[in-house]
C-alpha cells in the first residue's frame, strides 16, 4: 500500500541470545559474530542499500538491540550506501529492532485486521513470500471439492491495475474486520450494478456466504469477470479466510492471550503453567478446536515474553517439568509431525 511495504522475512536471521560468561552484547562487533551470521548481515545491508537506491532514499538509522546496532553501523559504513546518501533526494528514518526484543509481537494474535488474517491463513503463492494463493474455482463452472485443484490458476492480492481492488485492499488493512467486509459488499454491489447483474442488496451483517452468492452472479459473464477480476480475487480471499478453520482458532488465541495477561497480573508463573497443562492434548484426544503442539509452542513463547522477570524456585521447576512432559508426549504421538516439529525434534 502507499504506507506499508512488506518484505520477505529473514527466517535464519535471529540475534544471538546472551550466554553466561560471554561478551556483553554492547561489546560485540561484526567481527565477533559467527561466520554465517556475519555473511547474513552483509547480505541484508546490500539488500537494504539496493532497496533504498530504488526508492531514492537518504536514511538516518536508529537501532534497538545489539544485532540491530551492528546492522545499522554496517549500513552507515557501506561504501555504495555512502555514495547514495550524497545524491538521494528523499529522506527517511529507519529503525532496526532486534526480533528477540519483540517476541510477544511476533506470536500474538492481537488485532481485528482482515489483511493480517488473509496473509496468515491462506497458502503462499508459489515463488512468493508475501503474497497468497486465492482459489478461483468459485468463478468457474468447474465444481470440485478438491482443494488442491490446479487446473485453475490461483488469484493473488497484488492488483496494481485495478483501482477498485487497490482501494478495497487499503480498507482490509486500515479498517476493523466488520467494516472491511461491509466495504467488500459495497464494492461488489457497485460492480454488479454496473454490469446489470441481478443483485439483491441486503442490509445487516455481512456473511461469507452472502459474499459468495454475490460473486456467483459474475460466473457466466465473461465481460463482467474481465472488468472486475482484481476486485473478485480480493473478495474471494476474504471469503476463504473467513471460512478457514484457523480463524475460529485465531479468536480463541486472542481470548486466551487476554485472559493470560489478566492472570499474570494477579498470580505467579507456576499457576499460569498449571492452567495451561490440561489443554495440552495428544493427537487422539484432540478435536478441531483444541490447540496443536505448534499452537502451544507459540503460546509458551507469548507467556514467557510478556511475563518479564520470573522468580525461579521449586514450584516453578515442578510446573515446567509437567508442561515439558505433556508436550513431549504430544509431540511423540503425532502421526505426521509438521515440518516445524520435525525441525525442532
UniProtKB/TrEMBL annotation:
Q: Which residues form a coiled coil?
A: none
Carries keyword DNA damage?
no
Tell me which Gene Ontology terms the entry assigns under biological process.
vesicle-mediated transport
Signal sequence span is 1-23
UniProt keyword annotations, A-Z: Signal
Q: What is this protein called?
A: SCFD2 protein
